[in-house]
Amino acid sequence: MTINNLRKIQKILVANRGEIACRVLRACKSLGIRSVAVYSRIEKSSLQVEMADEAYPVPEHEMPGYGYLDIDGLVAIGAKAGVDAIHPGYGFLSENPNFARASVEAGIAFIGPPAEVISSMANKREARETLRGLGVPVLSGTSGSLDGSADIEEQAQAIGYPVMVKASEGGGGIGLGIIPGPERLSRALRRAGSASNRAFGSDDLYLEKYIPDARHVEVQVLGDKHGNVIHLFERECSVQRRHQKLIEETPAPLFSNSQRAAITEAALTAARGIGYQNAGTFEFLVDPDGKFYFLETNTRLQVEHGITEMTTGFDLVEQQIRVASGEPLDITQSDIRPQGHSLEVRICAEDPDSFLPSPGLLSDWSIPSGDGIRVESGVRAGDEVSSYFDPLIAKILIHADDRSAAIDKMLSTLRNARIEGIKTNVPFHIKALESERFQDGSYTTQLAAQLTAPPS
Amino acid sequence: MASVTMNAPMTGRIIEINVAEGDSVTVGDMLVVIESMKMENEVFSQHEGTLSKLMVADDQNVSEGDPMLEITTD
Description:
The complex is a heterodimer of chains A (456) and B (74). With 456 residues, chain A is of the alpha+beta class. Helix content of chain A is 32%, strand content 24%. Chain B has 74 residues and is an all-beta fold. In chain B, the strands form two sheets. A four-stranded antiparallel β-sheet of chain B has the order 1-8-6-3, with no helix packed on it. In chain B, strand 4 (30-36) and strand 5 (39-44) form a beta hairpin. The relative contact order of chain B is 0.40. Chains A and B meet through helix 8 of A and strand 2 and strand 5 of B.
């Protein structure tokens, strides 16, 4: 696949690491775009360095991961390397409006929405209010800052327990806590506040109604700089631990066409309302009655974007680059006709039962390949999986004619995977995919807890 | 008097210490928070007694199995 009309973007800095850096680097290669990787001092011989045309060290920091958060340092690398654009990946600075702004000010295109759009969704408490204003349903919750608010207990009572505390500037499940009743409120707020402060430099929190047996469904959107916005249907992401996704699939099982039409329409309304550009995701909670509520917007590429690519046939990273170069979308809504079923599991370096981290030497790494199997990996056999970074080391994606064939193919791929040296969650994935609730599609966000609870 | 040593359950970095030497602790008390792989892991006491020795400090890197603290049980 070669694109001849990408005149403006001929060289890209991938300001990330691991599997997503490798994913974007591969897209660059297939589009004939020169690529620049960055790496920390413990990643000199990492896969992302090997795959890129050029590589530069991130600014040195005592904690290796912090170099990936250095806006000025990364933009300076981009300028020095002479790149036309920066791809932020996910995590790190991908949803930081200052990074988008600094890139553009340095004359480098940012492959993502404009800084003001990122900004409008960055504070999740404010994003809820914005989308409510656009007529998108949201869960009952607190709207103002909780800081110094004297009646937090009354506000929690008014929402009705259980409630959830969330970090307004949060992401990745950090700073979230379920509060079953008033006796746990102050401790949960304290914990969420300190975790949020450490991770995001802000202790702005909000409360939201907690629905235990809910499903997590999100809608992929794509917009250009000319006002065109389309959706690429939904992804079901309810298998989670610590509020982080482990398994995703599309289409969402047991989801009616009218639900699908309503949720995708809500996402389009939101995307148009905030002037969305580039690839993004609107996340919703679906309650046991099938009603959906907006949770948050991810103003970036998602970890699980690949399953949408497999069913729709469109390469989202390629689309991101085209949009960033100013091209109008050449896909219309009617071009999006998903085929078959796609499923992803996230391979994490962690204990499959306790989900506790398991960094260490990956002595063997071999995942079967074949038709309908896609492996997105940031590691090779012999790599050291560091405790400094997120435990996600790879993703396995499957595409098949229908859901049951996709599950079977994933199971056989997982059973034939050879991963040695560290513990991974592969045994959990097998257990989850074999479970009755997953097989019949009726699972909720409780599935991981149900499968790992000690026998009573 | 017997004492038990609590070891780091994983490799990571100490980001929060909730106890000081001489404190009395009970089962379920949150003692330290270890950050590993971008996760904050709370470590709880499985013993009742007095914290007799604290062997870790804020921001310190620990490996799995490193002794972190000692509790003297009564």
